[in-house]
Amino acid sequence: MRKSDAVKKHIAHLALAAGLAASVALYAIAPQLDDYAVNILMLAGINIILAVSLNLVNGHTGQFSLGHAGFMAAGAYTSSIITLSLAPVLASAPAWQAQVAFFAALLAGGLFASFCGFLVGVPSLRLRGDYLAIVTLGFGEIIRVVIQNTDALGGARGLEGIPPYTNLLWTFGIATVAIYVVASLVNSTYGRGFISVRDDEIAAEAMGINTTKYKVAAFVIGAFFAGLAGGLYAHFISYIAPEGFNFLKSVDVVVMVILGGMGSTPGVAAAAVLLTLMNELLRDFEQYRMIVFALLLIVLMIVRPQGLLGNFQRRKRKAPQP
After folding, report:
1. pTM of this prediction?
2. What residue ranges define each of the domains in the chain, with the CATH number in brackets?
3. Which long-range contacts (CB under 8 A, 24 or more apart) does 126-132 make?
4. Which of 27, 85, 209, 255 lies in the 20 to 30 Å Cα band around 193?
5. How many CA atoms, within 13 angstroms, populate the side-chain half-sphere of residue 186?
6. CA separation for the pair 175, 46 (Å, rounded)
7. Helices 247-260 and 289-303: angle between axes, nearest 10 degrees
8. Is the pLDDT of residue 291 over 70?
9. Mind listing the pLDDT tens digit for each residue in 224-265?
10. Cα–Cα distance, 309 to 322 (Å, whole number)
């Protein structure tokens, strides 16, 4: 291992520790915050997970997915069904047992979402660009319609009474892990394969890189974290319905990735927080909120077409000029 790589790895470990410590601090001061501030922080953390996970597919690997809400729905409903079925037992159990069960439910939701990502990734390997976007969009709609017509999942009326297990520790702890995993992955020797697929897939194949493996891995890993975000979201608002995971939700996450900068993990995380705050600040302009929101996005994209931090990581990768 080169000395520079060892330093980067050490810095990544320090950042992970700092992020987890900040999550614990947020959880500790949560009782002193009003419910509105906590709700905004929760939504910001969930959006960070969604944006960072989609950035692995759209930004780092160069694919174009419009079905991220489908993976989120898969994780949300899977984890919710598990915790609802265990609710009678957990009602009289110690709090730590309920949290362990919640963690297991989150993992189950993430694994099922990653399985869905595998099902999407494998048949779509021969597709690129707009064609891949249409396939992923279709998958997201299939998930939503299936849920809407399944009575066991609540159908169109949705699932209610979901235990409110999500807190700031879970939300920002998982957001920190998501950022660490994606950033460490793409900056590793193995992760360079994702970048090569994005830059020139044909040249990567000519060099012997298994582009199929990297495409599927991107979908599976991205879907896993989207499933975790869905589970956190469901156990935060205690109610989910199929319409909460429609095409517009996928577009929201895509906007975060584009605004933050394709392929920039810090950028998309910052954009997720920014768009969450913008959405709340514009609530006073209810009639014109979407117009103002769209205009602000247009201005930002004109001023920074590469995104907020779109050239941040690429600039670090350039060799020093003599």
Report:
1. 0.90
2. 3-246 (1.10.3470)
3. 128/63, 128/201, 129/64, 130/64, 132/63, 132/64, 132/65
4. 255
5. 30
6. 7
7. 30
8. yes
9. 999 999 999 999 999 999 988 988 888 889 988 988 888 888
10. 25
